[in-house]
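FW: tagging you since you asked about this chain on Friday. Here's the raw sequence from the shared folder, copied in full. Didn't touch anything.
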Amino acid sequence: MASCYPQSLSLRTQAVLAGALFSSVLWMTAVEAGPSSIALPGERAFPESITSTRDGTLFVGRLGEGGVVRVDPRTGAAALFVAPGAAGSRSITGVFADDVSGTLWACSNDLSALGGPSGGRDQGSALKAFDLRTGAVKGSVSLPEPHSFCNDIVVDTGGAVYVTDSANPRVLRLPAGASRFEVFATNPEFAPPQPNSAGLDGIAFGGDGALYVTTYAAGGFFRIAVENGRAGRVIKLQGRPLGLPDGLRPLGRKSFLLVEGAGTLDRVEVDGDKFRAIPLRAGFRTPTSVTRVGSVAWVSEGQMPLFFDPARKGQSPALPFQIHAVPLRKEDTQ
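HL: got it, structure written out here
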């Protein structure tokens, strides 16, 4: 069938438009047909990030056991998709499904000292690429030293990949087809507030073309202007203090979905240099990320203090680990 989009549009742009159209169809069908919560495999999974494809398939990265789980939100079926240790990977933090390139991007970090998987060969932090259909390894690019920590991921319309480095005050960029990261943006306010704490975390493009990021321990929300593919002015947006802001995904033109590790899923509205965070649901046990499928936000629940806090190492997590569906109202997505 012939394309209904102008030939002047790039294939990536056409795919984005097609995804938006498909999401509007999912608006009426995706959530009502499936379960409200889905159990994940693994007694020490500690899910850290969640992403979705245009057809609604979910992928969840596991911090505690490594690997990536694929989930069908309509049936609730969940199974290991990327095996622990694949491509030398260790703990999987951020994940991002790129339909256009057919790639599942995943951040890998060596957290074996904290009880994370020790089967992979990587010693530091790396961005992994897996085939979005089969899970086969497509590539691996190490983050630059010193002591980097690949946290979360987004891809621009040209295919460049951006990751937040939680250990350093920088957003890194991997141009399409490149084998080495470059520093895209840096700012002193991106730095972790204390040694061994987390700095940059969530990352997403807004409808205005700017790049938005959060800082986890400091609770900040920032806009990075993008000018001709380069980082411009960095502005800390003014709003209420955020409680451990983590996963960030676009929602409307000037709004985002955001989870706060303190326990909530929020709708964040941006107005000039200010923002307003409106809780949509509370009571999660350390939510770690969110992804939108049509009229539903899927939230991963990580129970992270049981992984990171030495004082709680002997405590057992509530099993099974789960992801939860939060229905969105039409007005929430404007």
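FW: Residues 1-10, 20-31 have pLDDT under 50 and may be disordered.
HL: agreed, and The two ends are 32 Å apart (CA to CA).
FW: great, closing this out.
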